[in-house]
Specification:
This protein is of the alpha+beta class. The chain has one domain. It contains three helices and six strands. Helix 1 packs antiparallel against helix 2.
Length: 148
Amino acid sequence: MALGDIGRALTGQALDTAKNSMLDAIKGEPAKKAAAPASPAAPTYDSIGSVMLAQVQAMQKSLKEDQELVVQFRAGEEMLRVVEIFVPSPQVFVLSGNDGQQRLTRIVAPASSIQLICKVLRVTPGSTPVRLKIMTPNPRPPADVAQK
């Protein structure tokens, strides 16, 4: 295994851990105690949404400088190129992007019903690749800490 592959694997694990702790904070669950996982090769996920986000982030993370990840969402005849995913809760995604006429469009849908089309494309020389933005809300401090 090349040194770059090891670095990518370690970075992926660190991002997954940070993402999962962020999603746990959003759901309001207490911090999980450190316990030995049942199977170290198979990570556990709390929701379909977190699995989808992890997959999209992994695809984007592995891109070269001259590549971009094109994420599309189809609803009937409408095709949306997604440039931003906002996750107000682990069960709901808000997809933002441009439709075929370059109009800003947003789709609010349950994560379990969304199918994303992901393609890795080369960028024309001299242009900047578009990176998908994934936003999750910041965890709120407990009420007693916020009042002090």
